[in-house]
Design goal:
By secondary structure, the protein is an alpha/beta fold. It has a domain of 113 residues: ATPase, nucleotide binding domain (Nucleotidyltransferase, domain 5, 2-Layer Sandwich). The chain is built from twelve helices and ten strands. Strands 3-2-1-4-5 form a five-stranded mixed beta sheet, with helices on both faces. A five-stranded mixed beta sheet has the order 8-7-6-9-10, sandwiched between helices. The radius of gyration is 19 Å and the shape is globular. 44% of the residues are buried.
Length: 285
């Protein structure tokens, strides 16, 4: 049986299929980003799921597509963890960009990730090209959930957030300075913690002017850093996966118009596309 995973920093979606593509189950764990989650915690998050525990000896292949798996050291850590858990399986770990491409297109295009973190690549129809490595939430991740979470916290504490929104913000979240610092500097998954604040921007159907300004600024930074750096930017469609992209579609469209860019598909949760990809691949083999 084949187990494949769309692994984000906040959560991981797992699907088990038979060798002919029949879906056995779909389940979820907490995020398994090896750059921000300690090795022991990675193991316990998988073991906490009873469906995964029950099939560990039966799985023959694990394909993990995950945030934080774009460089060798964290990728190796996760491979060792998964090999120890699924001891009879062949383990394949790739960064989440690969799953993003499989989920949105089979044709040449640029694919962007705007979820807890952010990233992008160019897919030429056969090969994924990602010349700029992702250095994560502390250095990069423009227009991601954790990027906007940082912006909201800064604006609240620097008193730049409109007063009526600041009142709602402090009612919706625990914004005691000690609590924030504990989550950022003492606990695992600080990026996912920051991204949690981003949902505040999308609580209402109509986006507030203040939020619109934040979103436009973030998306513009992403365009400059992660899209226009590709020579093919104006000649191929640009697809997105992730909740931030899903809820910011109109903002993205507006920013794209300024740069003569063509918006392709936006998929909030890539797992459905990944399931279809595996079923087609297995049934045609």
């Amino acid at each position: 049986m084949i187990l494949f995973t769309d692994g984000g920093s906040t959560k991981c979606d797992w699907v088990l299929v038979t060798s002919d593509g029949e879906k056995v189950f779909q389940t979820q764990t907490l995020g398994l980003n090896p750059t921000v989650v300690p090795k022991e915690e990675l193991e316990s998050r998988v073991l906490y799921n009873p469906q995964l525990r029950d099939v560990m000896m039966e799985v023959t292949q694990v394909d993990f597509y995950g945030a934080g798996c774009g460089t060798e050291s964290p990728k190796t850590i996760l491979m060792l963890v998964l090999q120890g858990l699924f001891s009879n399986a062949k383990i394949n770990v790739q960064e989440d960009l690969t799953a993003a491409v499989f989920a949105v297109t089979s044709q040449p295009g640029i694919v962007g990730v705007l979820g807890t973190g952010s990233n992008s690549c160019f897919y030429d129809g056969k090969t994924i090209h990602a010349p700029i490595p992702s250095l994560g939430y502390m250095v990069m991740d423009e227009a991601s959930g954790n990027y906007f979470g940082k912006q909201l916290l800064r604006d609240y504490f620097y008193k730049k957030m409109p007063k009526h929104l600041a009142i709602t913000f402090e009612n919706d979240f625990n914004i005691l300075a000690d609590e924030i610092k504990m989550n950022l500097y003492q606990k695992s998954n600080p990026n996912a913690y920051l991204a949690n604040f981003a949902q505040f921007m999308f609580a209402e159907e109509i986006i507030e002017p203040y939020f619109k300004s934040l979103l436009e600024e973030g998306v513009e930074k992403f365009i400059q850093a992660r899209i226009l750096t590709f020579a093919e930017a104006t000649t191929v469609p640009i697809h997105f996966i992730g909740s931030i992209a899903h809820f910011s579609k109109e903002i993205i469209e507006g920013c794209f118009t300024k740069h003569n860019l063509h918006l392709g598909n936006i998929v909030q949760r890539p797992m459905d596309g990944l399931v279809a990809y595996y079923q087609q691949k297995l049934r045609s083999s």
